[in-house]
Amino acid sequence: MTKTLRMGVIGAAGRMGRAISDMAASENARIVARFEVGDAISAEGADVLIDFSSASATRAVCAAAVKSAAPLVIGTTGHEDEERGCIENAAKTIPVVLASNFSVGVNVLFSLAERAAMILGDSFDVEIVEAHHRMKKDAPSGTAKTLVEMLQRARRTNEVRYGRKGMVGERGSGEIGVHSIRGGDVVGDHTVVFAGDGERLELTHRASSRETFARGALRAARWIIGKPARLYTMRDVLGL
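Above: the chain's sequence. Below: its structure in token form.
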């Protein structure tokens, strides 16, 4: 029988924290410690720490995980360079999974979009459209940022345009457009549009429940235990 996974969750009262709590028992997992931003964080009694709080808590979360030598799963988005640096430094000492999206389907979208960009080449223009609920604070979403990074590598370009307004001129051939929609209770929609002459390919993922993210986070939390110190992604967890 699989050992019960003991977790410390930062951001336990938030949407994702509650989703993980609701799903824990069915995944043979148990939350042994709950924290919010500003709390003194400890991994005592936990096999792994899971962070779905705020980028502002990243330094404290990483410090607590390193101090306890606890594996760390981070689903928080909106990190600035300094916070990203804290994560990368922590990953030199402990195993860390950093993912902008824990959905299996979204990670397949990453692979499909990257492959499509390489096959279609510069003759197709690329646009990313993402939609989330009205309460989401950062834009574009972390998932959209991950898509941008992958498409930049595939197309060998650094040209990104976030939205358009006014007389912006003709679209650059290497440009990647990114657009954010906020409203209602949208859990998370992401579409990558490849627009060519006379045809258009659209790859879309729509999340209808946070359960899919919670299930993926729990999968990552169980997977990371015993792994060498390194920075991992959800694609590592899924073997993509």
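Residues 22 and 211 are 9 Å apart (CA to CA).
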